[in-house]
Amino acid sequence: MDRIVITGAGIISAMGVGLDQTLDALRRGQSGIGPVRYLDTEHRHLPVGEVPLSDEQLRQLTGVGEPCTRTQLLGVVAAREALQQAGLTGSDDKIRRRMALLSGTTVGGMDRFEQEYPQLASGQGNVAYVTAQDCGACTRMIAESCGVRFDLVDTPSTACSSALNSIIIGARLLQAGIVDAVVAGGSECLTRYHLNGFKSLMILDEQPCRPFDKSRAGLNLGEGAASVVLERERDVRQRGGAVLAVLSGCGNACDAYHQTATSPDGEGAYRAMSQALAQAGLPAEAIDYVNAHGTGTANNDASESAALRRVYGEHVPPVSSTKWLTGHTTSASGSIEAVLCLLAMQAGFIPGQGTWHEADPECIIPVAANTPCTLRHVMCNSFGFGGNDSSIILSAP
């Protein structure tokens, strides 16, 4: 079977706009988590990972006019950068390819619906934002703003594993010969409903999050978008494109243990990681680094640690969570962290976890500081509500 490879990537998050700003922040360990700047909320005491641009600045950056949503604008930035790096923009790609856009989201266009609702309720306001709230409508709006023609547009929505599932589905579409190139990832903006919902679960930390730390008290919500371009390796070689990494293994499982909590023994996570290793044909000891889901909640970090120990035994590879840099970007987290893994592989270091200080016997001990390392095989985890758990393995080309 022809290998599925990554030929382009794009990203926007609290760490910055684009690959260059993001790599610089990753090298410096510069967290984007801070006070609320743009979201209209009374919970201004809760730190968040906001993209450092207003809606108006994002419209100017993308050239996208009204009606638009923040989720759409973020997604457009990431998808365009990925297409540009892959050389598949309308002006550069001389051969017509069947293309798909897969963008995971759960919030969709809820941000603008919240803003327009008071006027809509009184018979005024822009009715376009009623339909724009739909997750699928957001993906369609991203597709229409990318400057290329997509033959297939779809919206995986499996909570926090949505974006990683976009990548997994994209790989299957390519293997099945349904399309020739896939832009896969996710986009999610902050909304009041979003923030209030997580607050009602009592899992938001009022300080910067500390995944796997004994003092961890919850997560910080974030926003952003990331996309990767996936192609079959033979197609890339034929067109003279560059391979950034190989998508060597994928796994997805659902333990359905609880609506929101993960199972104590990490059954779904264990199965997802094991499937990814099996598909890649790699022994566990071949993995050089694991980018953990690592949310900072008591339940997730203990459960993921149990799963990691089940997969790797006494020799768990270096592990860290990058959510202390971006916040938990929910449906976009899988693709954002996959791109961070890609950047770390290219730059040759394991991202450290600067907010970790004290070991918890229930948890693995993460890498605390950036560590130079040749990364051949990297595992990236994303685990969603309902136990929908996904893992992928990126390998050096």
Folded structure, characterized:
The chain is α/β, with parallel strands linked by helices and 397 residues long. 35% of the residues lie in helices and 18% in strands. It has helices at residues 18-28, 55-62, 70-86, 110-121, 128-131, 135-144, 162-175, 192-200, 233-239, 267-280, 298-312, 323-326, 333-347; strands at 4-13, 16-17, 99-104, 152-154, 181-188, 224-232, 245-254, 289-291, 319-320, 349-350, 371-372, 377-384, 388-395. Strand 12 and strand 13 form a beta hairpin. Helix 2 runs parallel beside helix 3 (70-86). The model has no long low-confidence stretch (mean pLDDT 93).
Low-confidence stretches: none
Radius of gyration: 19 Å
Q: In percent, how much strand structure appears in the residues?
A: 15-25%
Helix content range = 25-40%
**Outline, from the CA principal axes?**
globular
Structural class: alpha/beta
Number of domains: 2
| Helix-strand topology string | EEHHHEHHHEHEHEHEHEHEHHEEEE
The CATH architecture of the largest domain can be named as 3-Layer(aba) Sandwich
Main sheet overview = 11 strands, mixed
Termini, distance in Å?
16 Å
At the third CATH level, what is the topology name of the largest domain?
A: Peroxisomal Thiolase, Chain A, domain 1
